[in-house]
Amino acid sequence: MTNYDPPTAFYFKVEFGIDRAQKNGAMFQEVSGLDTERNVINYREGGENRFVHKLPKGIKHSNLCLKRGLITDPVVLKWINNTVNSDFSVPIKPRDLIVSLLGTDTKPVMKWKVSNAWLVKFEAGSFNAKSNETVIESLEFAYNSIEKLSI
């Protein structure tokens, strides 16, 4: 019998897929929205009263939320600023993101690919000179699909 220790939600690295030559990324302590839900249509068949058919419909996702990180990469910052400050004269450029759950040894334990993501909300958090808390930057992305990757 082998012992299995489930991975702890220690911290996350997010690669923004902007420049393939260099890994543009940032570390975050909180990630949410890595979910998929299949919508269901309830269909009543005429003359059949014992049950209702459940048929698959489209898929929906929550927005991907990244918190407790601070992005300093100029390439990623430029993409974020172009997306948030867009006047739609230039199209928003969605990117594929790779979200990696890192273990205590900083090696990936799990990975997810979030396809066609684009920023819908940015929050710098609050600043308080009387507090010694870490600056919390929050980013929220809409996306088309999510795929769990093998390590």
Description:
The protein has about 150 residues and is mostly beta strands. The chain has one helix spanning about 75-85, and strands spanning about 10-15, 25-30, 35-45, 55-60, 65-70, 95-100, 110-125, 135-140, 145-150. It has one domain (about 10-150): Pnp Oxidase, Chain A. The strands form two sheets. Strands 1-2-5-8-7-6 form a six-stranded antiparallel β-barrel. Strand 6 (about 95-100) and strand 7 form a beta hairpin. The longest helix has 11 residues, at about 75-85. It is elongated, with a radius of gyration of 20 Å.
CATH topology: Pnp Oxidase, Chain A
Strand proportion: over 45%
Helical coverage, percent range: under 10%
- Secondary-structure class: mainly beta
> What is the oligomer described by this structure?
single chain
- CATH superfamily membership: Hcp1-like
Number of separate helices: 1
* Low-confidence sequence ranges: none
Which CATH architecture would you pick?
Roll
Mean pLDDT: 84
